[in-house]
Every structure is written in C-alpha cells, then in structure tokens.
Amino acid sequence: MEKPAPRVEDRTWSCSCTARGRHRIPLGGTATELAAKVGEMLSTSVSSSPLTLVGRRSTNSNLNLSKDVVQRSLVLFTVGTFLALVLNLLQIQRNVTLFPEEVIDTIFSSAWWVPPCCGTAAAVIGLLYPCIDSHLGEPHKFKREWASVMRCIAVFVGINHASAKLDFANNIQLSLTLAALSLGLWWTFDRSRSGLGLGITIAFVATLITQFLVYNGVYQYTSPDFLYIRSWLPCIFFSGGVTVGNIGRQLAMGGSEKPHSD
C-alpha cells in the first residue's frame, strides 16, 4: 500500500539567527507573511550589529563629554567670579583701584563687569590647562589633590593681599618681591612647562587688556608706575593663571583624589 506524498505546506524552512534563536517559516504561507518574517530578522540583525553598537557608544561618550565640560565651566566661572569680588574689594579698601564717583553711587556701577569677565577668563583658563597637558602628552601629576589646590588658592589670595598691604621704599622692590612669590607659587604647586608658559602668556595678554581699559578711561590705578598701571600687576595675573589652572586640572580628574603625601 503506497504512502501518500507529503504536501508542500507540511514542509518548513528554518534559519538560525544569533539574536532570536531559530525561526520556522512555513513555505505554504503567503508572500506577505514571508516578507514580514525576513524584515523582522534583518532589523534584528542590524540593530545588534557591531557598527550600530559602536555608533551608540560614540554618541553617549560625546554627550557625557559635553556635560562634563559644561559642569566644569560653571564651577570655574563661579570660582573666578567669587575670587574677583574678594580681591577687588581688597584693592578698593586700600585705594589702589579707583572708579568714577558718579558711577560708584549707582547700583549698576562700572565695576559690575569685573566679576563676570574674571569668571569667564577663569573658565577658559581652567579648561585650557588640561587640554594643553593632553596635547603635549605630559599629564600633570605633581601634587594632584584638592588639599594642594586649596593651599594654592590661599597663597594666591595672600599674594594679592600683599600687593595692597605691603609698603616698600619703591614699586620696583614690591614688584620683585611679588614676582618671586609668584614663581614660588608655580614651583610649589605646579612645576610644569605648560603651566609656566601659559602663566606667562596669561600675564602678558591680561596686562595688555588692562592697559587698554585704563587708557580708555574705564578705570584707573593710583600712582601708576608702568605706563598706566602698577608694575606688579603681571605677577598677580601670572599667579592667578597658575591657580585657576590647577583648579581646572583637578576638576578634569573627575574628583578622584590621591592620598595626601606631603
């Protein structure tokens, strides 16, 4: 007795897929069902492909990097603004910096722009230092802890306070003393070639900008001895650049603090 021949629709076609196991598609189904199954398998394969995963990781990495830069910029801007308010107050108390009387009497005095400008400069400098270190391939590893950064800030405030409090026979002696203190700050808390070069560049550029502002009558210094400004001002800019650079470097580490080993 002959066995009946198997029907076509009883036979199945199977394929293996790494993401969803085995799919069994009946050959007797309609063309629409077959196309839907094939499309589902192709979409699963594409979504799990290495190129897609790499693209997603790259996008997430870029987003995290942008978020980190924004957060560091905000912190540096806040620190720069606060330091500008404190240090400018010390200078005004000692009658070093003078603003027009008609402007001082108003709420929106000519001094309102000083803290935001200093905060913006601090954000740029603080982001620039770790970028230069990375570009030169010389990561800064000397005294990388927040305790050292706080001491650097204290020394910087002390140098600025000394510029207003110390009385020397002439401004040349005061300038040489502050220059030695500024170099001592760099040697104690930095000791990097990039830090020294950026500090000198910042001092030069900031001094030129200050000369321009004083020349145009935005504000003035009492008893200027270097063109329109005080001769010790570049020392303050140099030490301020080194201080903000150390803050930016520490923030770039992501808050990881090394054990204190002084």
Automatic annotation (TrEMBL):
Principal localisation: endoplasmic reticulum
Gene Ontology MF term list: oxysterol binding; protein sequestering activity
Pfam families, per the entry: INSIG (PF07281)
Transmembrane segment boundaries: 74-92, 112-132, 168-189, 196-215, 227-248
Tagged with keyword Lipid metabolism: yes
InterPro entries recorded: INSIG_fam
Domain of life of the organism encoding this protein: Eukaryota
Record bears the keyword Endoplasmic reticulum: yes
Bilayer topology annotation: Multi-pass membrane protein
PANTHER family: INSULIN-INDUCED GENE 1, INSULIN-INDUCED GENE 1 PROTEIN
Family: Belongs to the INSIG family.
Function: Mediates feedback control of cholesterol synthesis.
Name this polypeptide is given: Insulin-induced gene protein
